[in-house]
TrEMBL record:
One of the GO biological process terms: carbohydrate metabolic process
Superkingdom, natural source: Eukaryota
Keywords, alphabetical: Cell membrane, Disulfide bond, Glycoprotein, Glycosidase, GPI-anchor, Hydrolase, Lipoprotein, Membrane, Plant defense, Signal, Transmembrane, Transmembrane helix
Subcellular location: Cell membrane
SUPFAM superfamilies named among the record's database cross-references: (Trans)glycosidases
Recorded catalytic activity of this chain's protein: Hydrolysis of (1->3)-beta-D-glucosidic linkages in (1->3)-beta-D-glucans
UniProt membrane topology term: Lipid-anchor; GPI-anchor
Endpoints of the signal sequence: 1-18
EC number: 3.2.1.39
Protein known as: glucan endo-1,3-beta-D-glucosidase
Keyword Transcription among UniProt keywords: no
Membrane in keyword set: yes
Amino acid sequence: MADVFMLILLAVQVFVLAAADEEPFIGVNIGTELSDMPHPTQIVALLKAQQIRHVRLYDADRGMLIALANSGIQVMVSVPNEQLLGIGQSNSTAANWVSHNVVAHYPATNITAISVGSEILTTLPNAAPVLVNALKYIHSALVASNLDRQIKVSTPLSSSIILDSFPPSQAFFNRSWNPVLVPMLNFLQSTGSYLTLNVYPYYDYMQSNGVIPLDYALLKPLPPNKEAVDANTLVHYSNVFDAMVDAAYFAMAFLNFTNIPVMVTETGWPSKGDSNEPDATIDNANTYNSNLIRHVLNKTGTPKHPGIAVSTYIYELYNEDTKPGPVSEKNWGLFNVNGEPVYILHLAGSGSVLANDTTNQTYCTAKEGADPKMLQAALDWACGPGKVDCSPLLQGESCYEPDNVIAHATYAFNTYYHQMGKAPGTCDFNGVAAVTTTNPSHGTCIFPESSGKINGTLVNITAPSMNSTSSDSTARNFYIGGFMSISMLLRVVMWILVVL
């Protein structure tokens, strides 16, 4: 009887572990086309602060892999497209790549997947004949290192290779690629991997010439009469994302593959665009990514596969200012290069991922590299006319260390920002402060939570910021104004006290 009980317990444990493995997640892609790329340790600090536990790298950068070690963050590394031909033609080259870029870092760096190229069929078709060999050679190297169960191998496809994608039940892959796709799907099925797909409702919407409604592309809730209906299955679709994922499932089924899960390796929405891209806005980017995160994490799956997770990587962590192409190409990021959020995601009640990216969890910090004299003037103002209690900054008190103007100014700026209810215009201080989602508390110096009150009184300021009319930063446009020079303050600052 005891043996039976132990077998049942073991079976339950296996089931629970399997279920845990299938939990959907939101990850983030980390692009590198920035004129001032943050140091890997800065990137990892941002990931930790945002509770981002899954990232996809477009290469296998050694500095990033070292910085990610012992972070708990799960990492998808990539074979860059330019290395694919060499790896696809040489088993030893693939083994060498795995040895240097995976085995050398695992398990300290939690590498869980390898992306072999990206959108090869549509961006590098001359390499397509060796794509499946590259997948097999990389996998064989993992087998030789006894890592094939821990690390999956796949290759992201562009959703554009799926033809006749709506209704999803009629979708099929571009048949000219079947000589590559069929053995590729065989490989994914035999290794227990997933079909990785890049899905961009923004481009589907832009190219539809008005056929696709904006709300349908942005994953906004729609009434049943506004949903799209698949005439063959009578299934309702309320957004482009689900329709494209199901189109991939149907396209695989058309080739007799019905048990390969889909993972979305890229999706997102640009926050800024050229004049011919009017819907590339901060509000739409915020709406899409906020709705996407909730949609993925609520485990509803898609209409064809309800309850089956569609784990997804957002494109991308940073705005990439050196990326070629239209303005929109440079503005897919959740953050600017200095770690300031481009927008604050609407994620209340959606779980812990990107938990600091909610309107209830923002902070005001001094900018690195700001003029020390400007910082000191702003600090003096906050601790004086700003009515911030700066006693914790006194020698021997909890926030005295580190004893420098940046740390002290950050404490004062953040306290003022919270006292003002985090209202727009209360974290600028003449351009030396910025809103962040990273809690600046350290050691015994715990930064105050938002109260919106000073001694029971709500305080507001009527004077506009000197910087509220111009800025080079999207985030600065969003978080306008807040501090005027001392000389201006002597002339125009006035306070309105409203007794609660």
